[in-house]
Amino acid sequence: MAELSPQNRIAIVVDRALCIGSGDCVDTAPDVFQLDEEDKAVVVDPDGAPLDDVLQAAANCPVTAIAVTGEDGDLYP
Ligand code: SF4
């Protein structure tokens, strides 16, 4: 299992093959997600927003490229 973040106790994975660089995740949680030089989302800090906002950002992704895992398993999708 991936190491979980200290505060939210989550691991976030962005599927770069799926990400189309829409930036919705960045708009929702800019301290968690940023776009890199290839216009793909990267996680800058899994604890950069409350868990609800992280999950909302994942839900806002139009291609479901963001997976969030917590202590008890999948939180999204
Ligand atoms: S919302 Fe999804 S497709 Fe858009 S930048 Fe974030 S991960 Fe990529």
Description:
The protein has 77 residues and is of the alpha+beta class. It has a single domain (10-76), classed as Alpha-Beta Plaits, CATH 3.30.70. It is built from two helices and five strands. The strands form two sheets. Strands 1-4-5 form a three-stranded antiparallel sheet, with helices on one face. A two-stranded antiparallel ribbon has the order 2-3. Strand 2 and strand 3 (41-43) form a beta hairpin. The longest helix is centred in the C-terminal third of the chain and has 10 residues, at 51-60. Bound molecules: iron/sulfur cluster. Iron/sulfur cluster binds next to helix 1.
Protein topology:
Elements: E1 10-14, H1 24-28, E2 33-35, E3 41-43, H2 51-60, E4 66-70, E5 73-76
Antiparallel strand pairs: 1-4, 2-3, 4-5
The structure holds iron/sulfur cluster.
Iron/sulfur cluster binds next to helix 1.
The whole-angstrom Rg is 11 Å
Report the sheet-strand fraction.
25-35%
**What is the total number of structural domains?**
1
Catalogue the ligands. Answer: iron/sulfur cluster
Spatial separation of the terminal alpha carbons? 17 Å
CATH class: Alpha Beta
- Summing up helix and strand content along with how strands pair, one would put the structural category as alpha+beta
Helical residue percent band: 10-25%
CATH architecture: 2-Layer Sandwich
Enumerate how many helices there are, as a single number. Answer: 2
Largest sheet: 3 strands, antiparallel
Shape: globular
Looking at CATH, which topology would you report? Answer: Alpha-Beta Plaits
Strand and helix order: EHEEHEE
User: Strand order across the biggest sheet?
Assistant: 1-4-5
